[in-house]
């Protein structure tokens, strides 16, 4: 009986972990950044995944191996685990999901690129601000406000 309960718990935890896994694989966890994502590089494609209120994936080709994870350079959303985090993620999904984003790479941050992205000629950060989305993530420089 205890073994069955333990296996059920292990299965549930594995499922939860898999659901949180990052599907964007164009930038490896370790190793070199793809050369097409150098500082100043322009790339575009549909937004295919939103991780939280300020990170998303842009498909530059078919399949997750060609999905570039982006940390928005011009918007700092509350952390996903904070009380307003799920709302920030939902706002980014409403603004960007399925729409074509045109991005300019800045620098690498872990397994993603920090970039400014535009939809319809407006930066995603400005689009989020226009919807009333509140900034407040760890990267927010309050001195600039």
What is the C-alpha radius of gyration, as a whole number of Å?
A: 17 Å
**CATH architecture annotation:** Beta Barrel
- Quick one: overall form? globular
Strand fraction: 25-35%
Q: How many structural domains are formed by the residues?
A: 1
Walkthrough of the structure:
This protein has helices at residues 2-20, 85-96, 124-130; strands spanning 42-52, 55-59, 67-72, 100-109, 112-119, 122-123. Strands 1-2-3-5-4 form a 5-stranded mixed β-barrel. It is globular, with a radius of gyration of 17 Å. Helices cover 26% and strands 29% of the residues. The chain has one domain: OB fold (Dihydrolipoamide Acetyltransferase, E2P) (Beta Barrel). The chain has 145 residues and is an alpha+beta fold.
